[in-house]
Specification:
Elements (H helix, E strand, L loop, with lengths): L1 E4 L4 E5 L3 H11 L5 E6 L3 E6 L6 H10 L13 E5 L6 H8 L3 H10 L2 E6 L6 E4 L14 E4 L3 E5 L2 E4 L4 E3 L2 E5 L20 E6 L1
Parallel strand pairs: 5-13
Antiparallel strand pairs: 1-2, 2-4, 3-4, 6-7, 6-13, 8-11, 9-10, 9-12
Helix pairs in contact: 3-4
Length: 200
């Protein structure tokens, strides 16, 4: 673990993996003076109120896990119905050496967790993808990926909440609305949320 100053009101924590980030995020969010903890793939940005705490105190809270692990309530799982008919389905199945049916089965069987959000509002990076399905991004990204597209790249899978460029392999689509500015909260998925895909 490495702690780096990030201006006068934040600390950037570098760790080994997304699971460690999520654990630290839950723990450090309880520390006095912490305003926000923003998870990413292997980093956690911790913003704090300098009138309440210091960077050293936040660093100590991170290093000690704020008194050790504490059971956090697990959010209810979000189930997304997916039509597995994406343009990369056949190519990915051939690349990993399995049938399309087996690819769909493995992708849908995994229990996913939102590790972090980013790229575009409502886009959640999900961990838990079967190791046999880890594939690289497209060599040349698409200029427009339709909203609701379910894709994967590297060790992550996710759903494009709106039309945008993207380089992930597309397996299918869902009609779930991942981002709605009129909804509270606007994002359907937040870090720590369990997610399951159900074939349509």
């Amino acid at each position: 673990m490495r702690l780096l100053p990030y201006g006068e009101r934040a600390v950037l924590v570098e760790v080994e993996d997304a699971a460690t980030v999520l654990g630290l995020c839950a723990a450090v969010s309880r520390a006095a003076g912490v305003l926000e903890a923003v998870p990413a793939a292997r980093t956690l940005l911790v913003r704090f109120d300098p009138l309440v705490t210091t960077a050293d105190a936040v660093g100590h809270a991170v290093e000690t896990g704020v008194g050790g692990p504490r059971a956090e309530p697990t959010p209810d799982p979000v189930e997304l119905t997916v039509r597995y008919d994406g343009p990369d389905l056949t190519t990915v199945a051939a690349e990993v050496g399995i049938s399309v049916q087996e690819l769909v089965g493995r992708h849908a069987a995994a229990a996913y967790t939102v590790a972090f959000c980013g790229f575009t509002p409502g886009f959640a990076y999900l961990t838990g993808l079967d190791l046999s399905l880890h594939v690289s991004r497209l060599a040349e990204p698409r200029t427009a990926v339709p909203p609701g597209s379910v894709g994967m790249a590297g060790g992550f899978t996710g759903v494009y909440p709106r039309s945008s460029p993207g380089g992930w392999r597309l397996l299918g689509s869902t009609e779930a609305q991942l981002w709605d500015a009129a909804r509270l909260p606007p994002a359907l998925l937040a870090p720590g949320t369990p997610v399951r895909f159900r074939p349509a």
